[in-house]
Amino acid sequence: MTAESATTDAEPSTDASVAVCAEDILRADLYDFLAAFLARPPSGVLLTQAMSLEGDDSDLGRGIAAVARLAKSIAVPDAQREFNALFIGLGRGELIPHCSYYLTGFLNEKPLARLRGDMSELGIEREQEVYEPEDSMASLCEMMAGLIRGRFGDPSDLAAQKKFFEAHLSPWAGHFFKDLESAETSVLYAPIGTIGRVFMGIEQDAIRMEG
């Protein structure tokens, strides 16, 4: 599952020497999964795709199984109302899913400026028709998936992925997904919060091991 990108992809690499390993493809799939649910109200197509997911007995697997189960029982309009209550609302939603807000209490602050600088270095361009700040969780997940897969050129090595993750996701992603998991409005989005929280913890641990 992928979200409609908030960024412009550069020409992907076709060099076999930079092929992405299966483990990293799974990581990119999870980032794309999160982006798909966070970028806009879920469509019937997205919910149908989610129904086919299978989990296991791990914390991450149980979150995936819960999303699949809820996707089978929730009506599309109800899922869309939940998204709007969480992230849009009347004036603002229950949560504001932007790095600047989580780190400073305001939108469009220094974390966004730093992200834009890194986007420029990486060749990631904002889509002209997208008006929200680029430091939303949906956009950052799209960018991480793109770096892993090579959507902006050659697939990024682990050092570059680590640098981006530590700068733009590590400081707040776990807090955001924990908030999403326990938000008053969250039903379908509660296990999505679980998936995000557990996955970000896994990513953080992997980065520490890479050291």
Give a structural overview:
The chain starts with 6 loop residues before the first strand and ends with a helix. It has a single domain (28-210), classed as TorD-like (Orthogonal Bundle). By secondary structure, the protein is an all-alpha fold. It is built from ten helices and two strands; from the N terminus they run E-H-H-H-H-H-H-E-H-H-H-H. Helix content is 61%, strand content 2%. It has helices at residues 22-39, 44-51, 59-73, 76-87, 99-104, 110-122, 137-149, 158-168, 173-182, 189-210; strands at 7-8, 125-126.
From N to C, what is the helix and strand string? EHHHHHHEHHHH
Report the helical percentage. Answer: 55-70%
Biggest sheet record: 2 strands, antiparallel
CATH class descriptor = Mainly Alpha
Number of domains: 1
What is the radius of gyration computed over CA atoms, rounded to a whole number of angstroms?
A: 16 Å
Distance between the termini: 31 Å
Architecture (CATH level 2) name: Orthogonal Bundle
